[in-house]
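Deviations from the work plan: none for this task. Representative record:
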Amino acid sequence: MSENRPTLQVTASPHITSPVTVNKLMWAVVFALLPAFAGSIYFFGLRALIITLLSVISALLFDALGQRLFGRKITLFDGSAVLTGILLGFNLPPNVSWWMPVAGSAFAMLVAKQFFGGLGHNFINPALAGRAFLVASWPTQMTTSWLAPRGGVISGLPASALNICTDAVTTATPLNVLKQGAKLVLPGCNPTNLYEQLQSWTTLKSLFWGNTGGCIGETSALLLLIGGLVLIITRVIDWRIPLSYLLTVAALVLILPGHKAGLVNYTLFHLLSGGLMLGAFYMATDYVTSPLTAKGRVIFGIGCGILTVLIRLWGGYPEGVCYSILLMNVATPLIDRLTPPRVFGTRRKK
Amino acid sequence: MLKFRGGVHPPEGKEATEHKPIETLPLPSRVLVPLSQHLGAPSQPVVKKGDKVFTGSVIGEPGGKVSVPTHAPISGTVVEITELPHPLTGRLVTTIIIESDGNDTLDPSIQEQNLTELTPQQIIEVVKNAGIVGLGGAAFPTFFKLSPPPDKPVDTLIINGCECEPFLTADHRLMLEKTEEIIEGTGYLALALKVSNVIIAVEDNKPDAIQALKEAVAGRDFRVIQLKTKYPQGAEKQLIKACLNREVPSGGLPADVGCIVQNVGTAFAVRNAVRFHRPLYERVVTVTGNGVREPKNLWVRIGTPVKNLIDFCGGYNGEPQKIINGGPMMGIALSSDELPVLKGTSGILVFNRVPELPEQDCIRCARCIQVCPMGLSPTRLNYHIRAKRYATAKSEHLLDCIECGCCAYVCPAKIRLVHTFKFGKAEIARLKV
């Protein structure tokens, strides 16, 4: 070979690559959560900001610590730790102690994520694992540290309902009122009336806008939907999981027995309350812990929906989004095995 | 509009050359002709050092059942017959080096033929003797495809004018400039296969070519069909699926579903072979990419060093980082610009800056599964191969992978999936898994 020849790079095809990267996908979800983050600060004030920031910062630190411990490359800015931190913060009641997000992040990043191999290898959603760890360890903090939102009350109930019922109602979230309704009311207060109030358009509007009690980032269905739709349109997330999840919840609450004040209102109440929007759009869609194929994702969404409704109606907790997604995370390898794509030129195996 | 499953939409990058008429590259002073430019056995040299050859003279005879002869691309003197690394595989291959006499004297066998009574067998023979291989890139001997086994009746011929690879415009220009000739060649191919159902398939990003072909087929019952622009629309199995809604079975060939696919460039070469007994010694090559000053479409003699093409296109535009033989999705990166153009070289791409992002761990986003036109699960295959679980990879249809590159293109973790699959296939062959 003669001189002055260029030094050429010889690598396998393809020689072009799409501009989408892991970091961009993670940061896209982070940005999609910003409207809900802004909403949470509006509704719950500085506490929402502090708790979420504590969660994010500690998630970054514990992720890096885990990577250091296991000799992995430290990737503070790939967006995944920030995303887990935000999601964990969003899953905490606004009035929890400052160390709760730190403890939750430690469990999420070290145990759920880095112990299993880091990003891409965890088998359950780290943020939800962190939340489940906190609920199991400090149940009282996690189930009572609610704050009244700006422009609303914790239960979301209209003022007329508050006059007739006990203080307990004023410290319970909408789903808690649905679960414990009869137990929360004083003698002489009509529980049927309470469920009607709970499913009134006034409460539904509060659930839609976000001025009800609940975890920091879960209350505003509207703001979560905006970000979720952006993620679907930009193809960051697959529409199949949220859609099958939400439709399953809607279909089941329609047909199963419950304190229905009206079918439409009752269905909307279930769709808009609790962590369903946050879970369906931002956590059930976590790539790492959800199935690979379109069919598998629909099964996953349906499974999440069934478990959520079962827990809400008959389980020990008022809300079932967190556990249902965690359980379906565990079922994901099985779903993947049962739903491989059909290879071109082969018949589907019986 | 019928379509295939999966696929991607990379930026087309065809603007630089799609409106540029094909220019003829000046005769090279020296050509390097490897005797293995096709799939199948290499041809065997029939000339020796010092022999004078004409343009189109046979210099290599078929070396096996699936093999074709090789011809001299220029007239001159054989100066060396040596073992050189194959431009694409790097394996040593017998290469005949010819120095030009500058006259480009045609071999006397090349002249207009009397075409009154053409039989299918004659056409197949002529196509074989002309050294014609699939010009879409895979370079499978064309005569072999024209002789399907008798138990596999073929009812349809598809002429592939998709040119779905980004940046390449060689087929596009050929369809515009040699429309009649392509149709004529298509007629010979249909005759050789004894089929009456002929489809000419073009992606809808080439409306001018579709228009020209539609006008040229007037009076014949060939159908020109417009397909959605989506990579890899021109891949054989995907093309058959889109045109006929037939699926070539796993491990099978198009003939298994009664179909044969030939590239438009091949049809043109067949026309020259049948009409003039002109062997395949030149082809259209698109020279483009940000690393070359004036991108062009060129008529190039086989064996011309890549450097000649780049010089004719104004030279390098800065420091080249990568030179690719073929398109950006499936082309092979060359190790030197002194390597020659082959029968299957549809393009020479010069890229200055190729983003080589580090591999990250798979996040199971499943984009690779969504885009795989073969219905494979690239992320799983990748894990299997890297863990040396070759038998598992094989059972999950690794060998059905067409290496189109869709998976690696979309992978956000930038995992070198195709690289792994090529390695895995080679290991399966080596270890006889």
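Residues 22-144 of chain A form one domain.
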